[in-house]
Write a structure and sequence with these properties.
- The protein has one domain.
- It is of the alpha+beta class.
- The relative contact order is 0.18.
- Strands 1, 2, 3, 4, 5, 6, 7, 8 and 9 form a nine-stranded antiparallel beta sheet that branches. A two-stranded antiparallel ribbon has the order 10-11.
- The chain is globular and about 45 Å long.
- The longest helix is centred in the middle third of the chain and has 14 residues.
- It is built from seven helices and eleven strands.
- Helix 1 crosses helix 2.
């Protein structure tokens, strides 16, 4: 199946009600409607906004500590599916003394991207702010398979897709700002709080976001 994948990575622990409400309201308002959901496969729970928020905010034991020989911290995940290859998932960990990279992803058909390109870009920008994203991408499934290999900033930056977000933290970590800014596709945009009129004063401003057109 040819699919489009939207993925964001963050250090944020995001099982909060205000984040859950923003996620599901934004998805619904932009035409991404789910039918089933759950925290494990197979997904059997009939989708509703209220139940989705409850599952999103649920948590279990987090990470196994070898020295203590027990589970410590917390973790959580969520999955939902809809028609035409629509699927979303998220996973977060909050473990003492460990910094875990958490993520959320949304997959859908190429036809959906063709008909909802502006809505997809809107969600991408909004979720970058909402999740305080470190890195993100929108890409075709075939391109993801080709690009998902090791690279170095001086020779080849891995994961350059149709649409990318690189936070300042990411550029500093990869030590690749100079290389990225030399790319012809580089675009820089200030990002502010978004949300169809819903303002969340807890959301920080994230600038800049970058778009790559490989």
């Amino acid at each position: 199946m040819k699919e489009i994948s939207l993925t964001l990575f963050t250090y944020q622990v995001f099982n909060k009600q205000n984040i859950a409400k923003s996620v599901f309201d934004s998805l619904s308002e932009n035409g991404f409607l789910f039918t089933k959901m759950g925290v494990t496969e197979p997904l059997k729970v009939r989708y509703s906004r209220e139940e989705a928020i409850s599952l999103w905010c649920s948590e279990t034991e987090g990470c196994y500590d070898i020295e203590l020989e027990k589970m410590v911290g917390k973790a959580g995940n969520f999955m939902a599916k809809g028609p035409k290859s629509l699927f979303m998932g998220s996973q977060w960990w909050h473990c003492p003394n460990k910094k875990k990279l958490n993520y959320i992803y949304l997959t859908f058909s190429v036809d959906v991207l063709d008909s909802k390109k502006q809505e997809v870009l809107y969600l991408f920008k909004e979720f970058i702010v909402l999740f305080e994203a470190l890195y993100g991408e929108i890409t075709h499934s075939d391109a993801l398979k080709r690009q998902h290999v090791t690279g170095t900033p001086d020779l080849r930056l891995p994961g350059v897709f149709w649409c990318n977000y690189y936070s300042n933290e990411y550029l500093a970590l990869m030590n690749c700002r100079e290389q990225v800014e030399s790319f012809e596709w580089w675009k820089k945009e200030d990002m502010e709080e978004r949300g169809h009129g819903r303002r969340n004063d807890d959301l920080p401003k994230r600038r800049p976001w970058r778009v790559g057109r490989a």
